[in-house]
């Protein structure tokens, strides 16, 4: 098969990897690190790709935790968001989450996706 065929297959699977969390009702993906292209694809789908400001915070997350993300009303480039975990026993913990959104990408998020933002502009 041609090189172009393989490139289309890889690109399609990367895009699908960004679509799936959205279709499952996800709003944010919080990880230690992202592949750049996957992070961008998530942004285009209106998702919040976030990373732990302190990688040790990863270990604070427990199965069954309720997760709240605050700071979205003043969402801006370079300004971390805050994650608050509510554990099963009712205790809470908060920590910073980083993002790499620029102003244009924040517009995608607020519109629900890059495609929605394009539709608003036309």
List the helices and strands and how they pair.
Blueprint: H1 3-23, E1 28-31, H2 36-44, E2 48-52, E3 66-70, E4 81-86, E5 92-98, H3 103-111, H4 114-121
Parallel strand pairs: 1-2
Antiparallel strand pairs: 2-5, 3-4, 4-5
Helix pairs in contact: 1-2, 3-4
Please sum up the structure shown:
This protein has helices at 3-23, 36-44, 103-111, 114-121; strands spanning 28-31, 48-52, 66-70, 81-86, 92-98.
What is the beta-strand fraction? 15-25%
Treating each run of at least 4 consecutive H or I residues as one helix, how many helices?
4
Oligomer: single chain
State the end-to-end distance.
39 Å
Question: What structural class results from the helix and strand content?
Answer: alpha+beta
Return the string of H and E elements.
HEHEEEEHH
Reported for the largest beta sheet, the result is: 5 strands, mixed
Number of strands: 5
Radius of gyration over all CA atoms, rounded: 16 Å
Uncertain runs: none
**What's the overall geometry?**
globular
Can you give the mean pLDDT? 88
Main β-sheet, spatial strand arrangement: 1-2-5-4-3
Helix content: 25-40%
Fold and architecture overview:
Helices cover 39% and strands 22% of the residues. The protein is of the alpha+beta class and 122 residues long. Strands 1-2-5-4-3 form a five-stranded mixed β-sheet. α1 packs across α2 and α3 (103-111) packs across α4. It is globular, with a radius of gyration of 16 Å. The protein starts with a helix and ends with a helix. The model has no long low-confidence stretch (mean pLDDT 88).
